[in-house]
Amino acid sequence: MQPRTIVPFGPQHPVLPEPIQLKITYEDEKVVDVVPAMGYVHRGIEKACELNEFNKNIYLCERICGICSCIHGIAYCEVVERLWGLEVPERAQWLRTIWSEMERVHSHLLWLGLFADAFGFESLFMQYWRVREKILDMLELTAGHRVTHSVSIIGGVRRDIDTDQKKRLLETLAEIRREAQALNKVMMNDYTVKHRTVGKGPLTYDQALHLGCAGPVLRASGVKDDARMQPDLHRYGELGFEPVVETGCDSYARALVRARETIQSIDLQLAALEKLPEGELAAKPKGNPPAEEAVFRTEQPRGEMFYYAKGSGTKNVARVRVRTPTYANIPSLLVMLPGSELPDVPVIIHSIDPCISCTER
Amino acid sequence: MGLIEASRLKSPWILHYDTGSCNGCDIEILACLTPLYDIERFGMVNMGNPKHADVLVCTGALNKRSARVLKNLYEQIPDPKLVMVVGTCAISGGVFHNCYNVAGGADKVIPVDVYVPGCAARPEAIIDGVVKALGRLAELQEVARGKKSA
Ligand code: SF4
After folding, report:
1. How many beta-carbon contacts under 8 Å exist across A and B?
2. From ligand 1's centre to the CA of A60, what distance in Å?
3. Complex ipTM
C-alpha cells in the first residue's frame, strides 16, 4: 500500500471565499477519502427567527445567503402568506418572478467566473464578472441595492418597475444575453476548459437521485427536476418553463447547465417583462399569522429550496425551517472526489457551487 | 524608507477570511478585484497565504467556531499588519446580533484598525477602507522606525 497523507482543505483556502473544511486523504496524488467538517459560518438564524417579530424576519432570512438573498426573502414571505392564505396581487407575483430570475443570472455568472478561476482561466473569470456588473446595475436600479435586494414584503413587493426602468432593463438584458452567449461559447468549446472539466467528478443518474442532490448538480446528471416546474409557483407556468438538462454527469455538464440556464433565465425575464400586468403591488395582511403550518418550495440558483413555518397566533412565529440546496449537494462530493487527482479537487468542489453560508445558516 | 516598506505601502497584499457572513460582503470584495473596480491596478492583490499578507480583511459576524481560526490567521501574518473589517455584521454582529452562535464583531478577538460599514458594503466603501488602511500602515512603519511614538 502506498503511504497516505491527510491534507486539510480549508477552512481558509485561496479558492474558497467561504470557510468549510474537507479533510482529504491522498494516496500519492490520488484522493481516497474525504471527510467534511463544518460549522464555521453557523449563526443560528432559524432560532433567531423565533425571537424576532414575524415581519422583521424578512431581513434576517435575506441574510441567510448574500448571493440569493432576494429569493430567500421571497420564500419567507410566501410561506408566511400561506399561513394566512393571503392572495398576492398578480403584478407582485410577476415582479417576484423577474427579480428571482435576475438573481439567478447574477449568481450563475458569478459561479461561471469562479469556476473558470478554479482551473486557472483568469481572463474568463474577469470577463464573466464584467458582464455580471451589468445585471448588478439593473438590480440596483430596480431594487435599490447591488447585493441585498430587499424587495419582498409580506403580501407583495415593496418596489415597482416603472416604464423607464423597464426600457433600460430590456436593453441591458439583451446586451447581457449577447455578451454572456459569447463567453459561454468559450466555456463550452475551449480545449483547455474541456481538458480540465470533462470526466472530472462523475456522478451518475442513480447516485444523484439516491444522494438527494438538487439543482444544476442533479440536472447535469440527467434528472429532469426543477422546482420551477410546479404549476402554482409565481408565474413560471405561463412562461412555458422547461428545465435545462444535460447528461454528461461531470463537472463540464454542470458548467453547461448553468451556462444555458443563464441565457434561459434572461429569456424568461424578457418574456415576463412583456407580460407584466398593471395592478396593486401588495395586499395588506391583518393581525398576526395564525397558529398553522405552511410549506413553500422554490428553485434557487443552486437548486431546490424548502421553507417551513409554523405560526403561533402571536407576533412571533413558532418555528421556521429552511432546507437549502448546498446542504443536499455536499454529500455528492464524497462520491465525486475519491479517485480524482490532487489538482482536480478545487474544480470538483466548485462544480457543486458550494454556498456555505446558506448550508449552515 | 526601505524598499520593503515602500513596496508594502505601494502594493499591500490582502488576506480575506469569512468568520460567519452571509456572503454578500465577500462577493463585493471579490467584485473589487474584477474589471469595473479593479483594485489590482493599485497593486492590491488578494492572497491565500497569511504569511504573505499585509492586510487581513475580515467579513461576517464572529462565529464561535471561527474565532479560533481568525486568531490563528492573525498571528501568522507578519508585522506590521492591519485588520480591516467589512460589513455591519463584522463590526457588531449586525442582523445576527441575537443569534446564539454569534459572539459579536471581529474586534472581540483581534485588534481592528479600519471599519467599513454597510450591509452589504459597497465596493467604493471597501476601496475607501483600504486607502484609509494604507495611511495607518504608513503610521505603523514610522512607529517601527522610531520616528514617532505609538
Ligand atoms: S454586513 Fe450584511 S451583507 Fe455583509 S456579510 Fe454581513 S449580513 Fe451579509
Report:
1. 129
2. 10
3. 0.80
